[in-house]
Amino acid sequence: MQILLLVEAGYRFEILLVGYQNPFHRLTNGDYCEGQTQRNNPCDNAFIICIRHMGSPANVCDIDRLQTTLIERDSDNLMFREGQSIGGVQNPIAVSGVTWPRKIEIQVYVYDTDGRGNSISMNSDYVTEFIIHPDVNASTNGAYTEEFNEIDDPSSGQRRSLQLAFRLTCLPPHFGPDCSLLCNTSACYLTATTLQPGKTSFSSPDVLTPTITTMPVRPDKTRGSSSTLRPVITVARRPSEDQAPSPVSIGLICTGAILVITAIGIVVTLLVILKMKQMKKMYSQDLVASKEKFEDSQDQGNEGKFEEHLYDTVKTTSTFRTISTTSPPPVYAAVNAMYHIAQEDPDGMAMEKNISYARVDVERNVAYGVVVGQRSQHRPMMPLPDQ
């Protein structure tokens, strides 16, 4: 029973063959391609390309292996184009995988078929070998990176060079330097550098596709050097997402603010009304208590102790010390009670006169008013308790 596991590719790596030169028409052992007597005759070149992970066993092409047929007869100055078939191998060479391994090795073997057919065989002459370790990641997505390799042996007069270019592209929905990250449930949009998460559809107009134009390759580098082809990148701009709030949004915000302020005002008003009712109730209770205490003193014949009753009324009133300075203190309620009783009492004319001396300093809650003992006498004023 076989179980097939489908794994979605995360990257696409392309190897673009740019050019190959062997100006002295020599093999790696120093011999000439067409023999000593035909030194100026070029080789009949064909390539074997091995793509492998670094550290893999020798001669194991664990990523891909490609072999061309005769590329061009009698030519040691080869220039290649993108989209061209090179000895049956499409240019660029493309490989894909889940996660970009970063450390890979590319081996390019060159053989001279020597007119013995169009394919590499046991009779083909070994010309040279190039080993390249490309340094590329998705941060250069959309652009090729040039790799120039040269074998130069001044003692034998041999010089051979190979130019390649590389391009790494993350495949949706992968992104990141090594294409190992996913966009989760959202699609990605493409920028000039890498794939980013955040868009809802790859087919939307917001998907940006860079247009790449590479400069001509200049095979004038030293052996093993590398440089980046200077690309001209044209990228459409995404519409700005930082748009001003709409009038509807502003209206809703203002309406909400007004409702909040109105609710606060209603709550404050209700609290003030409740407080006023509580104060009115306390004043009424103080007035009733003062009147009853005064009447009790009359009924019991303790007129001489009215002064003490009034003093106690003020002293024991719980709200006296907390009442607002703009409101009548409890002593004012007691004086009012005395005034009304005096008016009802036929003999209370003297008391009414005495009560006229009452003065209440509301701001300091100190009564400069009266202390009345017996009805017909005006006694000195007694200070109220300290606040």
TrEMBL record:
Segments for region (Disordered): 206-227
Q: Which GO terms describe its cellular component?
A: membrane
Q: Which UniProt keywords apply?
A: EGF-like domain, Membrane, Repeat, Transmembrane, Transmembrane helix
**Taking every annotated instance into account, which residue ranges of this chain make up the domain Notch ligand N-terminal?**
13-140
Q: Name one GO biological process term.
A: Notch signaling pathway
Transmembrane segments annotated in the record for this chain? 248-274
Which Pfam families does this UniProt record tie to the protein?
MNNL
Protein's UniProt name: Notch ligand N-terminal domain-containing protein
User: Which organism was this protein described from?
Assistant: Geodia barretti
